[in-house]
């Protein structure tokens, strides 16, 4: 097994770059960290390119040895690679997959229109996974699924649910051609309380930007736009909480 | 109006300490930041002790002048006080209120048992506010409502909904004496799907620790324990998302 004990090692220098969108795009690879996340990757037989692990973490988790290149790293290297203050001693280099939409659309789909908070987006994917959704479509302006904070929020859900990146107006035509209803989320006129809708079998639910909501052209093209009645004094709900309420209402 | 342009000024040195729990406990004061948050404080006529604002922010928001001491601060002071990278140029020193429970318990109550993530806790309070809850009770082991990250998550909801700090086992006796049902949240046996419960008029909903759930003695003393059916492969839901789903189910 290869052993690396210096954070200045060239392999480490290249691997740490895979936390940045720029290098992720160039290499089509990302760096994942955390015991739970990497356990999910192994369980899902994800095509791990390299797994980097400290001796302590490997001793406690022998499943981190598998059909992939394993590099034993020092605590100093682990600390250097980690995005969090307390690192968990395990990292993996994984390919960024770019699946294409199935020919026949079935099930529940979450669309993310211009969401900017990576932690929120991670939680949204994790919630869609928990609610049994089929796929999540990241609109062109939505923050990356491979941002370190998105990855932390997803907790490995990228290994359970397919993530797509697409222009949402183009995707709308694909869904409409198959008569799949698209539900938007909005405040104001011409909206329906979420309690008056669902459950639905095949559909898309669109969540908009944290501050500005959905793009107006997309909002106009939906079958119905849903709101969550706010009976208190808060102006709005957190985007991930609102989406969670809607996902568990529409898809039961 | 008093003007402070140096971060080394003694008043500023004392004020910045009010971000730390230790000094918050000693002084019974906390430091709040952000335009939205402080607008909510002013709207609610909260007893602001001092408001600190930059000239630029004050010019754009004349409502930041009111019946309280206002200190004009330089951009350097604002940057120094801010908890976020991009400061909004306005801060307020506010008292930490310690309300006592009403004699007659009415409405919907959220109990937080040993929650540790301040961002999550802030979102939980904001969601309880949006859902029209009456109060939030912080169990003794739950993270402070006045942690800078909790404050950011609450977005000013502390001015709409009463926040209590109490021993939850003692509070349980108070609620039980008035026949107020207490709903817990748990996975496993003897739990009921959230879809089979509610809406309820007067009740308490208990959310447990992010990793370990509710304290066992509390869990045993509830009227029913609810779960959210997970149909996908995610192991669990984010605590704030789960609580949001339950709050909007129980209190309609």
UniProtKB/TrEMBL annotation, chains A, B:
Q: What does the UniProt keyword field contain?
A: Methyltransferase, Transferase
List the GO terms this entry assigns under cellular component, sorted alphabetically: cytoplasm
GO biological process entries:
methylation; RNA processing
Q: Which SMART domains match?
A: SpoU_sub_bind
Q: What are the recorded GO MF terms, alphabetically? A: RNA binding; RNA methyltransferase activity
- Its name, as the record gives it, is tRNA rRNA methyltransferase ysgA
Q: Which PANTHER family match?
A: RRNA METHYLTRANSFERASE 3, RRNA METHYLTRANSFERASE 3, MITOCHONDRIAL
Q: Which SUPFAM superfamilies would you find in this protein's record?
A: alpha/beta knot (SSF75217), L30e-like (SSF55315)
The protein's matches in InterPro entries, at most eight in alphabetical order, are given as: Alpha/beta_knot_MTases (IPR029028), MRM3-like_sub_bind (IPR053888), Ribosomal_eL30-like_sf (IPR029064), rRNA_Methyltransferase (IPR051259), SpoU_MeTrfase (IPR001537), SpoU_subst-bd (IPR013123), tRNA_m1G_MTases_N (IPR029026)
Instruction: Describe the family membership recorded for this protein in Swiss-Prot or TrEMBL.
Output: Belongs to the class IV-like SAM-binding methyltransferase superfamily. RNA methyltransferase TrmH family.
Q: Which Pfam families match?
A: MRM3-like_sub_bind, SpoU_methylase
């Amino acid at each position: 097994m290869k052993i690396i004990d210096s954070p200045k090692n060239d392999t480490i220098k290249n691997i740490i770059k895979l936390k940045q969108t720029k290098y992720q795009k160039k290499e089509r690879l990302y760096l994942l960290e955390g015991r739970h996340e990497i356990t999910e990757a192994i369980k899902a037989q994800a095509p791990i390119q390299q797994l980097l692990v400290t001796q302590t973490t490997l001793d406690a988790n022998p499943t981190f040895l598998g059909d992939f290149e394993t590099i034993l790293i020092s605590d100093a290297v682990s600390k250097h690679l980690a995005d969090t203050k307390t690192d968990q001693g395990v990292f993996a280099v994984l390919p960024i997959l770019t699946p294409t939409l199935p020919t026949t659309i079935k099930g529940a789909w979450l669309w993310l229109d211009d969401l900017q908070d990576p932690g929120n987006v991670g939680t949204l994917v994790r919630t869609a996974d928990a609610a049994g959704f089929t796929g999540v479509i990241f609109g062109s302006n939505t923050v990356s699924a491979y941002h370190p904070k998105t990855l932390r929020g997803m907790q490995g859900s990228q290994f359970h649910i397919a993530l797509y990146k697409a222009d949402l107006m183009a995707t709308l035509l694909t869904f409409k051609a198959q008569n799949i209803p698209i539900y938007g989320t909005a405040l104001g006129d011409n909206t329906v309380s979420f309690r008056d809708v669902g459950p639905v079998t095949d559909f898309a639910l669109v969540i908009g930007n944290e501050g500005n909501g959905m793009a107006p052209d997309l909002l106009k093209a939906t079958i119905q736009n849903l709101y969550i009645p706010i009976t208190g004094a808060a102006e709005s709900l957190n985007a991930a909480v609102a989406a969670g309420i809607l996902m568990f209402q529409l898809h039961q």
